[in-house]
Amino acid sequence: MSLAKSSPSSAPASAVRIAMVGTIFSFVWSSAFIAGKVGMTSTGPLTLLSLRFLLAGLLLAVLGRILAAPITAPRFNRTAVLAALAAGLLTNAVYLGLTYTGMRTVPAGLTAILVSTSPLLASPFAALWLKEPFGWRGALGLAAGFAGVVWIMGGRATSAPADMTGVMLILIGTVALAASTLLNRRAVTHLDPRSIAMIQLPVSGLALLPLAWWREGLAIRPDMAFFGSLFYQAAVVSIGTTLMLLWLVRHGGAARASGFHLLNPAFGTLLAATILGEAVPASDLLGVVPIVAGLALVLWPGQLKNAGS
Questions:
Q1: What is the structure's pLDDT at 221?
Q2: pLDDT of residue 223
Q3: CA 10 to CA 250: how far, in whole Å?
Q4: Where in or outside the cell (predicted)?
Q5: Minimal CB count within 10 Å: which of 39, 46, 84, 309?
């Protein structure tokens, strides 16, 4: 596989377009927690993730052949490749590995809420490290989102306590997710999204494979739950969210792309309640309000000025 230097966008994407792509991204991302819960009834979390990423890489390669869209490269950019590789391992192996392991004892809806704290870490570091513009509206929006998450967690502590070991694994994974978003910003300045996905997905699958064998023996129960979950996560979640996230990072910046995780509580709790039948405390629903309001402030058109690349 060769790697292509990306062509710069002719103009930054509009705030409306970024909001639409970001909302779809958050919905599909949140649905992975539901599909993961279903799949883990038939196999272990690390086995499911390893097979998911390997299958996603294979499907992406086949799709490229069908569309006759080979990846060619006028020049190999070592720094961009390393950034893409590190970002992929942090997202897929570390973040999802820890999150899926924690999700065995933590409800899927609560998992989506915990992951929504990622922008609170990514945004200030994007402003400091990547020099992305992020004014008072962005800071106020993140504060509102944080308040919503704190409200939800406070309600959960009294109404529906969760396993704290699982919660800590998910939170540690969320830190890795925030770091990966910043590294992706470095990668997308030199590589096109499909090239990055072809680096990240199969390598992540191979990295998790020995861990899955050691911890879980690669044991699976080949039923509809396993195959349905695996193919949905590989084809829709892994390929779809990877390409959408990279597009968002390129056109809106790392902070704004990460900000769409603030929508995860809304979609995560809705899907968990309707598909898995999980109970959703009233405090969760109330906490979603400041989270969504915070996202609106983060995506204020003025915040996106000069953010596209």
A1: 95
A2: 95
A3: 12
A4: Membrane
A5: 309
Output the six-digit token pair for 116. 């929504």
Tokens encoding 87: 């970002």
Band of residue 98 on the pLDDT scale cut at 50, 70, 90 = very high
What are the phi and psi torsion angles at 107 (to 5°)?
-60, 150
Longest dimension (CA), the chain: 58
Token pair belonging to 135: 């004014």
- For 70, the token pair is 């080979």
The per-residue pLDDT for range 113-150, each reduced to its tens digit, is: 778 777 767 766 766 666 666 677 777 877 887 788 77
What whole-number distance in Å separates Cα of residue 280 and Cα of residue 269?
7
pTM: 0.77
| Residues 43 and 195 sit within 8 Å (Cβ to Cβ) | no
DSSP code per residue over 131-187? -----HHHHHHHHHHHHHHHHHHHHHHHHS---HHHHHHHHHHHHHHHHHHHHHHHH
Q: Which residues contact 53 (CB under 8 A, 6 or more apart)?
A: 92, 201, 202, 204, 205, 208, 234, 238
One-letter amino acid for residue 60 of the chain: L
Cα–Cα distance between 295 and 297 in angstroms, integer? 5
67, two tokens: 């569309």
- pLDDT, one tens digit per residue, over 252-277 is 776 677 778 777 777 887 888 888 78
User: Bridge partners of 43?
Assistant: 220
| The two structure tokens encoding residue 104 | 């065995």
Listed residue (136, 132, 114, 115) closest to 123, CA to CA: 132
